[in-house]
Amino acid sequence: MPRVAPPDVDRVAAAQAAVAARRARAAVKRSVTSRGRTALDVAESAWAGEPTSPEATLRVRELLMSIPSLGPTRSEKAMGELGIATSKRVGGLGVRQRDRLRDYLSLREGHHELPTSRLVVLAGPTAVGKGTVSRHIRENYPNVLLSISATTRAPRPGEVDGEHYYFLSDEQFDDMIARGEFLEWATVHNASRYGTPRPPIDAALADGKSVLLEIDLQGARSVRREMPEALLVFLLPPSWDELVRRLVGRGTEEAAEQARRLETAKVELRAQDEFDVKVVNREVGQAAAEVVELLEVP
Ligand code: 5GP
């Protein structure tokens, strides 16, 4: 018998319902990423509530990936160890799988203990405007603790030592490395060295204050290794053309240097999926506000 297509009205309603369900699942994931809810709490609600709830219909892989510090690779590895197929939804797990996931999440999330402060790392491709966003935060959100990096590059006009950077000689930078005073450090654009002094960060976190780092991609990866609980934020340009325009428009570098930085930016853009949250820098005030919001522990 020929299949009868559903009437248009039904199809429209079904499409709208699917969009609403996707949005609800996205909201659940965001709440885990911003640490408003633990992944364990989401899983428990999935198992206690309706099988059609956003929690129950969320894929396990997506739930794991929304946990800050669990990227795609770690999530997949965890699923393999837990014996859960990639396509499984949280509500569709069997009893044993639920037990294993529950144990895994409780262990990972320190038995529901949520931190009172957090380390947020802002990275992104070169010329995306990280510096502008962090300057805007420094000037407009005096309560935000912004880490001051050390660098071996020379100050640009208007830059103040101890405010924008600690401008160090190569020897001074070597000494800090030798004393183990950097949380991370890297050579950026094959030129100067930049590093994040660790003591002020440890002190702030111990004091229950959140700290923001604006560093390059290599630095963000090192922080992830050193402090897996840090929240990694990737600042995106609205488009590639806009990124090129911003880099060329800045006019602080020679043509050869600009070309080199664009090459770096291309590679850097590919790393965005390693990050917990993406913020599009359409306008500095909007991007800064979104980053500051992430510093607040709900
Ligand atoms: P600029 O010289 O334009 O101020 O910064 C160049 C690059 O160095 C930017 O991508 C900036 O994010 C990065 N950077 C600044 N401070 C640090 C730091 O402490 N560590 C690392 N790894 N990169 C940094």
Describe what this molecule looks like in 3D.
With 298 residues, this protein is of the alpha/beta class. Helix content is 49%, strand content 13%. A 5-stranded parallel beta sheet has the order 2-7-1-8-9, sandwiched between helices. It has a 4-stranded mixed beta sheet with strand order 4-3-6-5. β5 and β6 (192-197) form a beta hairpin. The radius of gyration is 22 Å and the shape is globular. Guanosine-5'-monophosphate (5GP) is lined by residues 126, 130-131, 149, 153, 184, 186, 188, 194-196, 214-216, 218-219.
Largest sheet: 5 strands, parallel
Number of strand segments: 9
The SSE order reads: HHHHHHEHEEEHEEHEHEHHEH
With strands numbered from the N-terminus, the spatial order across the biggest sheet is: 2-7-1-8-9
Strand residues, percent:
5-15%
Estimate percent helicity.
40-55%
Overall pLDDT, averaged? 90
Rg from alpha-carbon coordinates? 22 Å
Number of helices: 13
Which stretches are low in confidence, meaning pLDDT under 50 for 5 or more residues running? none
Structural class: alpha/beta
Per the principal axes of the C-alpha atoms, what is the gross shape?
globular
Q: Which molecules are bound besides the chains? A: guanosine-5'-monophosphate
N-to-C terminal Cα separation, in Å?
A: 56 Å
